[in-house]
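Page 42, continued from yesterday. The earlier attempt failed because a stray header line got pasted into the input along with the sequence. Redoing it now with the clean sequence only.
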Amino acid sequence: MAFNDPIADYLTRIRNAQKAGHRTVVIPASKMKKKMTEILYDQGYILKYKFDDEAGKQGEIHIALKYDKVTKQPVIRSLSRVSTPGMRRYAKANSIPKVINGLGISIVSTSHGVMTDKQARQENVGGEILCSIY
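This time it went through. Structure tokens are written below.
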């Protein structure tokens, strides 16, 4: 199946799985999605992940979602696409917006690779703001 916006599909699959209370979600893989998954893991938004390159034509990403132990609420409160195929959002290093005053993260695609907004500011590179998470 062809998607117009594979990143929005990635975010929607995670969002829907969390609303349904699923423990894991399977997503078709790409280099961009793999890097985004690594960032989500490093920032503590997902429990664990596994890249399955044997499955299908392009492989799959298996993500174990993270929930609060006491309240059973998902760790990811909001997951939204910022830059869309119809309206790309670019920002310079000094004008990348902070998500909830620094409590959340933005994932930015730069010339130095895909990274968080904080890393982009430290390396002084701008780029396309893909999504925001908190």
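Notes: The mean pLDDT is 94.
Reminder to self: strip header lines before submitting.
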